[in-house]
Amino acid sequence: MPYKRILLKLSGEALMGERQYGIDPIRIAEYAEEIKEAVGMGIEIAIVIGGGNIFRGLSGASQGMDRVQADHMGMLATVINGLALQSALEETGVQTRLQSAIQINEVAEPFIRRRAMRHLEKGRVVIFGGGTGNPYFTTDSAAVLRAIEIEADVILKGTRVDGIYSSDPEKDKTATKFDTISFKDVLTKGLKVMDTTAFTLSQENELPIVVFDMNKKGNLIKLVSGENIGTTVNI
Fold this sequence. Notes:
235 residues, alpha/beta, Carbamate kinase, 9-stranded mixed sheet
């Protein structure tokens, strides 16, 4: 098994499924089943979810809202998504803990690094909500930060595309896919993997990133089993 402990990063939009807004119960149930299977293989799994299916802080700020307030709303959206995924996972019998970077004790534990690692060691899935707890930082940054803190082996970034391409494959039919690529080449070629802050933090800590299509059934299991799925970014 190539990985013992992973940080799975999901976008909020991924939870919409075929909907235009909110959470698709069918899509989130599919994710829960895949995560359950990975847990059954002995993989320790932490998860960070975005909030874009409910509210995106940057979008609110661009429409005249105070950026700090907008980002706090976005953080709360990630907690809502975390609660939804926790519920779906527990429906399948997977013990799950939701930890929040902002205090919201009635619905989530506070983020405590040692407690999170203890949950993982006991085979529980840990969902990190509330981003980093600070405005101006994305959930990409939260994912990298938490992955480093819990000593994850890799960040698995589940997206709608099956890897990193030379250009946007949805717009450019001649775009070519990379199986592996270095951090340096991603920056040189100007490719979009994560926001710059998150990507640089990952590079500095030599934490590999795998970008893959989470919506294709079985991809997560193939990836953690060692199959060459998606694109791996490493040193």
